[in-house]
Amino acid sequence: MRNYDIIRNIINPNEEFLWNVTGSIADIKYNPVYWILTIITLGIFPIALYYKRIFRSYVLTNQRLIIITGIFSKSVDEIELFRVVDSATDQSLIDIWANIGNIAINSTDKTGSVYMEKIPNPHWVRDVLRQQYTLARQKKGTVVLESLAS
C-alpha cells in the first residue's frame, strides 16, 4: 500500500490536509564524506540513504501530525496537535546550502519526541506546524504550563 492510499484512508472528512513531507538527499552533492562513501560502496550508499529518508513520511492536517514509516510493512503513528509543546529547527552549513534541515518536535503524547530528518524548506514546514498546533491548542482550550524550576 502506498503512503497516498494510507493518508486518504485515515484522514477524516472534517480534517484539512496541509502538507506531506519526506527527507531529502539534497545534501549529498555538498558533503565530501558522502562522495567518499559513494565511491567506497560502489554507488550503493546514495541509494540506501535515499530509501532511508524517503520511507519516513510526515503528514500534517489541521488536527494531527501523522508519521508513516516502513518499506515492506507500514507503521502509522500520530500526534494530536494540541499535545505538541515545542518545536525547533536545526541546520548544518551543508543543510543551509541544500535548503534542508531537521525539525525536533516535543509533545505530551505517548509518542513523545519526533525528530524529522533532512526535511526540505525546514523553516516553512516548522512555521506551518507551529501555526497549526497553536490553533489546535486554542480550539481545545489547552494551556501549556512550564516549570519554573531548573
Task: Give descriptors for this structure.
PH-domain like, 4-stranded antiparallel β-sheet, 3-stranded antiparallel β-sheet, 5 helices, 31% strand
Describe the structure.
- The chain is of the alpha+beta class.
- The chain contains five helices and seven strands.
- The protein has a single domain (3-140), classed as PH-domain like, CATH 2.30.29.30.
- It has helices at residues 3-10, 32-40, 44-54, 93-98, 122-140; strands at 17-22, 56-61, 64-69, 75-80, 84-90, 100-107, 114-120.
- The radius of gyration is 17 Å and the shape is globular.
Furnish the topology, listing elements before pairings.
Elements lengths: L2 H8 L6 E6 L9 H9 L3 H11 L1 E6 L2 E6 L5 E6 L3 E7 L2 H6 L1 E8 L6 E7 L1 H19 L10
Antiparallel strand pairs: 1-2, 2-3, 3-4, 5-6, 6-7
Separation of termini?
Answer: 47 Å
How many strands, which pairing sense, and closed or not: the largest β-sheet? 4 strands, antiparallel
Give the percentage of residues in beta strands.
25-35%
Mean pLDDT over the residues: 91
Q: What is the oligomeric state here?
A: single chain
Strand order of the largest sheet: 1-2-3-4
Shape category: globular
Order of helices and strands: HEHHEEEEHEEH
What Rg, in angstroms, do the CA atoms define? Answer: 17 Å
CATH level-4 homologous superfamily: Pleckstrin-homology domain (PH domain)/Phosphotyrosine-binding domain (PTB)
Q: Point out poorly predicted stretches.
A: none
